[in-house]
Structures are given as structure tokens and as C-alpha cells.
Amino acid sequence: MKLPENSLFGILMRARWWVSALVALGVFALARLILPEGLALFAALPFGVIACVVAWREIRRPRGARLDRALAELREMAWEEFADALQAAYRKAGYAVKRIEGAADFELEKSGQVALLSARRWKAAVTGVEPLRELTAARDGRGAGDCLYASTGGMTDKARAFCAERKVKVVEGDELVQLVRPTR
């Protein structure tokens, strides 16, 4: 089950854990003014649960040396191994995944929405604008709605600005590690 992106619960699931905890406390305090303590606690319960779920996710998210090791493991993978892991991850997330040739490596389709994913340069230490320009041209040429770029390295400032301007979602760092979850 996926929460609607702009619902209160969807927003809280993307926020830090303490935001939901504060909302839970606020709901409890306001409800306590008009309801008995047990019912006020019941009213705040969903927000407390969200705070716990988000905190659990944050604890499990790799950071620091653990993130560096996980990214190094991804860089050590051969292309076929990395591509298979990406394919499996997106299929698990409910996408129909098709390998394609050109600037993008995969076509992802879900609920009638098509996105292109470029991942072949995932080992690059720094990404410039050119591969992103090729990816957006492929998106426009194929009529896809979105495009994603997977990377274990950094990006130039111009490349980040290009991504923001042309709406390219960069899958990197802990997000990429969480998606692929290397097992080596």
C-alpha cells in the first residue's frame, strides 16, 4: 500500500521522525482539552506510529563509514550484476522494467507512467552535464515523463543545477544503497 504523496501521512513519512513525534504530542495536548486521556492518546497514536516507523528507517539508513563501504561495494560490482540488482529493486517496487539501448539503460513503467533510468556510469567519480543532457534528450524523444540518474560518485555544480532545472532525479548515496542493498 502506498500513501498519497501529498497526504498528511505521506508528508510525515518523508519528514524526520521528530516532526511526527511533535505532531503526536500536539494532537494529544489538543485532544486532551476536550476528550478523556485514553481517547486523546488514541487520537495521537497514528502519529506516534509514524514517528516510530520513520525513526526505524533512519536508524537503518547507512551513514558515514558504513555508507562509504556500501558505495565501494556497489562500485566493485560488474555492470551486469549492478544492472540485475537495479532491475530487481525496481520490479520489487512495482515497476515493469525493460532494458534499452542509448542514453538510458532502463525504461520503468508503473501505472501508465514511463520513466527512463541511466545507470551505466554509476562508477564515475564525478558526473558532468553531458550524460544528463543525453538522458533528458532521450526522455523527450521517447515521450517519457521522468528520468533518473544512478550514481555512486559526485556531481559538478553545473550538473546539479541542470538536474534541478530539467527535473532529473538523481539516485545516489544512501538512497541508491537502500535500493540496491549490496550483499557482498
Oligomeric form: single chain
Strand content: 15-25%
**Content-based structural category:** alpha/beta
Low-confidence stretches: none
**Shape by Cα distribution:** elongated
Discrete helix count? 8
- The SSE string, one letter per element, is HHHHHEEEEHEEHEH
Strand order of the largest sheet: 1-2-3-5-7
Termini separation comes to 30 Å
Main sheet makeup:
5 strands, mixed
State the share of residues found in helices, binned by percent. Answer: 55-70%
Number of strands: 7
Indicate the mean pLDDT.
Answer: 87
Structure explained in plain terms:
With 184 residues, the chain is of the alpha/beta class. Helices cover 59% and strands 16% of the residues. The protein is built from eight helices and seven strands, in the order H-H-H-H-H-E-E-E-E-H-E-E-H-E-H. The protein has helices at residues 8-14, 17-34, 37-60, 64-76, 79-92, 129-142, 157-166, 173-180; strands at 96-99, 106-110, 113-118, 126-127, 146-151, 154-155, 168-172. The chain has a five-stranded mixed beta sheet with strand order 1-2-3-5-7, with helices on both faces. The protein has a two-stranded parallel sheet with strand order 4-6. A hairpin with a 2-residue loop joins strand 2 (106-110) and strand 3 (113-118). Helix 2 (17-34) runs antiparallel to helix 3, helix 4 (64-76) crosses helix 8 (173-180) and helix 6 (129-142) packs parallel to helix 7. The longest helix is centred in the first third of the chain and has 24 residues, at 37-60. The radius of gyration is 20 Å and the shape is elongated. The model has no long low-confidence stretch (mean pLDDT 87).
